[in-house]
């Protein structure tokens, strides 16, 4: 899925404007960086059919772990938490003593699929700054699909970012997200705070600070460009567009479904599942075609057997067009030649009618054609026992105005 990823500029609250520069990344498949540059909001590449994902820098976010009161978290119709004013008030009360700013000045966002009865991660940032940073994008008619954090408390990782003069260390893990100056003391403290052994902790660094990180860690580090980091952030499940920054509930649901579909279609860990599904689909198509071919062969064999039966029984038939009809016609000719009656003859039809009708019924008129007898003078609402008796002899009786029409049943022999 084509995606345009934009990093919000770290400018003071209210300072973002049409002259603000945005770092951006374009990707066609969601896995590889196609281009990376910086431009004004009006000069950003047109998203077109691509998803526009906005990344909030780590410096703009703080992370807090809280226990929500029972019943304060409501679920939306398609999963996920519902951003309600009541939940906003609950978060303000829980975080009031932990924040350096007034809770009313901050924007909050809950973790994806937040549990109703356990600890929940809450991301917080300055509301005025976020609104100001998004304003140039909205003014340039760029529709934001998701707002994601640059780092989230998921995988255990240490990441060195910035420049050699202003190197910073980002620590992520069960403790949350910490942003510290990169140094020997802070690196040792971050390694000690992780639940894993220090040698097992993944250390990632931008190329500009990779040498410094290797010197402090005394081991090789994994290189990662800033653009690759933002691409990884866009693949995360977090969406900070909640409360006043959220779209309608239906839009949020569709965005969640689209994000999950993107993960299933592009994430490397689902590659085996995608191959398995493709093989299953191919096997089903092959099996369906094989079954259809087998059924067609069986049907052709039955038609051939019927044609052979007709031509072998009646050698005079040279061209077979409709075997059952032609066979019935040939049988009728044989009966006629032998002087035998068939169910379509007048004698057989009158005999069946005389057997089925009560003695008090008598017809006043008869109009006969081969295979059909129209009777006058009989009640149009014939009793059910009469109909059953005729049906047992292979005939059907129906009303047609003031007449009763007697015909051989379709299944009766000609």
Strand-helix topology:
Elements (H helix, E strand, L loop, with lengths): L2 E5 L13 E7 L7 E6 L10 E6 L5 E6 L17 H11 L10 E5 L8 E8 H13 L6 E4 L7 E5 L6 E6 L2 E6 L2 H10 L8 E4 L4 H8 L4 E2 L2 H9 L14 H18 L4 H43 L9 H16 L7 H11 L8 E5 L2 E5 L7 H9 L2 E6 L2 E6 L6
Parallel strand pairs: 1-4, 4-8, 9-12, 12-13
Antiparallel strand pairs: 1-2, 2-3, 5-7, 6-7, 9-10, 10-11, 14-15, 15-17, 16-17
Helix pairs in contact: 9-10
Organism: Rhodoferax ferrireducens
Family: Belongs to the GSP L family.
Subcellular location: Cell inner membrane
Please outline what is shown here.
The protein is of the alpha+beta class.
Structure description:
Helix content is 36%, strand content 22%. The protein has helices at residues 85-95, 127-139, 184-193, 210-217, 226-234, 249-266, 271-313, 323-338, 346-356, 384-392; strands at residues 3-7, 21-27, 35-40, 51-56, 62-67, 106-110, 119-126, 146-149, 157-161, 168-173, 176-181, 202-205, 222-223, 365-369, 372-376, 395-400, 403-408. A hairpin with a 2-residue loop joins β16 (395-400) and β17 (403-408). α9 (346-356) packs across α10.
Q: What is the approximate shape?
A: elongated
Query: What structural class do helix, strand and pairing data support?
Result: alpha+beta
Strand order of the largest sheet: 3-2-1-4-8
Please mark out the parts with pLDDT under 50 across 5 or more consecutive residues, or reply none: none
């Amino acid at each position: 899925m084509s995606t345009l990823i934009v990093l919000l500029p770290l400018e003071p609250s209210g300072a973002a404007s049409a002259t603000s520069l945005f770092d951006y990344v374009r990707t066609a498949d969601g896995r590889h960086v196609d281009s990376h540059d910086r431009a004004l909001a009006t000069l950003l590449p047109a998203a077109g059919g691509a998803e526009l994902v906005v990344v909030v820098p780590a410096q703009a976010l703080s992370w807090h772990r809280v226990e929500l009161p029972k019943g304060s978290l409501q679920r939306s119709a398609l999963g996920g938490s519902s951003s309600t004013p009541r939940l906003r008030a609950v978060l303000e009360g829980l975080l009031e003593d932990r924040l350096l700013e007034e809770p009313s000045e901050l924007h909050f966002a809950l973790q994806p699929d937040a549990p109703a009865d356990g600890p929940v991660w809450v991301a917080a940032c300055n509301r005025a700054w976020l609104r100001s940073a998004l304003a140039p994008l909205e003014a340039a008619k760029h529709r934001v699909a998701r707002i994601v954090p640059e780092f989230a408390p998921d995988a255990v990782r240490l990441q060195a970012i910035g420049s050699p003069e202003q190197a910073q260390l980002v620590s992520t893990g069960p403790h949350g997200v910490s942003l510290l100056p990169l140094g020997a003391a802070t690196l040792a403290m971050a390694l000690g705070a992780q639940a894993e052994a220090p040698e097992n902790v993944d250390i990632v660094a931008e190329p500009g600070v990779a040498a410094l990180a290797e010197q402090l860690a005394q081991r090789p580090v994994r290189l990662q460009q800033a653009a690759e980091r933002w691409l990884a952030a866009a693949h995360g499940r977090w969406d900070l567009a909640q409360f006043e920054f959220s779209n309608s509930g239906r839009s949020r649901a569709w965005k969640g479904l689209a994000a999950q579909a993107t993960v299933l279609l592009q994430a490397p860990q689902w590659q085996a599942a995608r191959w398995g599904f493709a093989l299953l689909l191919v096997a089903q198509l092959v099996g369906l075609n094989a079954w259809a071919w087998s059924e067609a062969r069986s049907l052709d064999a039955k038609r051939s057997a019927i044609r052979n039966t007709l031509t072998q029984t009646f050698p005079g038939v040279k061209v077979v067009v409709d075997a059952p009809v032609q066979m019935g016609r040939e049988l009728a000719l044989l009966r006629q030649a032998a002087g035998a009656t068939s169910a379509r003859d007048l004698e057989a039809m009158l005999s069946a009618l005389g057997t089925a009708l009560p003695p008090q019924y008598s017809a006043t008129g008869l109009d006969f054609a081969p295979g059909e007898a129209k009777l006058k003078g009989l009640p149009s609402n014939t009793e059910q026992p009469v109909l059953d008796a005729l049906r047992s002899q292979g005939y059907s009786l129906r009303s047609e105005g003031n007449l009763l029409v007697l015909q051989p049943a379709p299944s009766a022999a000609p």
